[in-house]
Write a structure and sequence with these properties.
The chain is α/β, with parallel strands linked by helices. Helices cover about 60% and strands about 15% of the residues. It has two domains: about 1-25 and about 105-195, Rossmann fold, CATH 3.40.50.300; about 30-100, 3-Layer(aba) Sandwich (Rossmann fold), CATH 3.40.50. The protein is built from nine helices and seven strands; from the N terminus they run βαβααββααββαααβα. The strands form two sheets. The protein has a five-stranded parallel β-sheet with strand order 2-5-1-6-7, sandwiched between helices. A two-stranded antiparallel sheet has the order 3-4. The structure holds adenosine-5'-triphosphate. The site of adenosine-5'-triphosphate has 16 residues, from α1, α6 and α9.
């Protein structure tokens, strides 16, 4: 099975673009959503996160995301420790999911691919880009986050220019209709490559 990675910076529109591919019948997997779901339901992860972050890691039985993000933001070591707990479980879950999929290819949305040198896990990589001011506005609207906070997240991520150099396909998502056209072209391109 061909695995296509879909990545991009905060607010670029990964999840929005992923929906286009889903509408073409491509099976899609959102790594961040699955990670969150596993952090909630896996007893092993729960135990390890409580050991790492303390009881505040969960609030009224729910994952305390605000607390966790405040702890890991700017603390690389802690982030890496959390990833070491969660990532292998997501990878195993993805493997099981992949076995059940039918079709020509699947798409896995992951915010972090290049940053952790995970390119080899994908046959092709699509990067979604968008102008920074638009990304900031979108995330401010979506999450109610401050401009300063979003900018600091952007500055912590690999730049679009670097991502573009390492990608097989690029979707510019400033205008949604334009981006949808590009997504459909890429879909057909991938099908063509697979056939030949
Ligand atoms: P994150 O990395 O933060 O999870 P993302 O890259 O998955 O973000 P989305 O959640 O798809 O991005 O988009 C961010 C917000 O911007 C959403 O509220 C979405 O509806 C909106 N959005 C995405 N693309 C466009 C667009 N072309 N025009 C207007 N709004 C858009």
């Amino acid at each position: 099975m061909i695995i296509v990675g879909l990545t991009g910076g905060i607010g670029s529109g990964k999840t929005t673009i992923l929906k286009c591919f889903k509408s073409y019948g491509v099976p899609v997997y959102i790594a961040d959503d699955e990670a969150k779901a596993l952090m909630h339901r896996s007893k092993v992860i729960r135990r390890q996160l409580i050991k790492l972050f303390g009881k505040e890691a969960y609030k009224e039985d729910q994952l305390n995301r605000t607390y966790l993000s405040s702890k890991i933001f700017g603390d690389r070591t802690l982030l890496e420790k959390m990833n070491a707990i969660v990532h292998p479980k997501v990878a195993a879950h993805f493997k099981r999911w992949l076995k059940k999929q039918k079709g020509d290819y699947v798409i896995k949305e992951a915010a972090i691919i290049f940053e952790n040198n995970l390119e080899s896990q994908y046959n092709y990589i699509i990067t979604v880009i968008a102008d920074e001011d638009l990304r900031i506005k979108r995330v401010m609207k979506r999450d109610g986050a401050s401009e300063k906070k979003i900018k600091s997240i952007i500055n912590n991520q690999l730049s679009d220019a670097e991502k573009m150099k390492k990608s097989d396909f690029i979707i510019t998502n400033n205008d949604l209709e334009e981006a949808k056209k590009q997504a459909f072209e890429i879909h057909n391109n991938i099908l063509e490559i697979i056939k030949n």
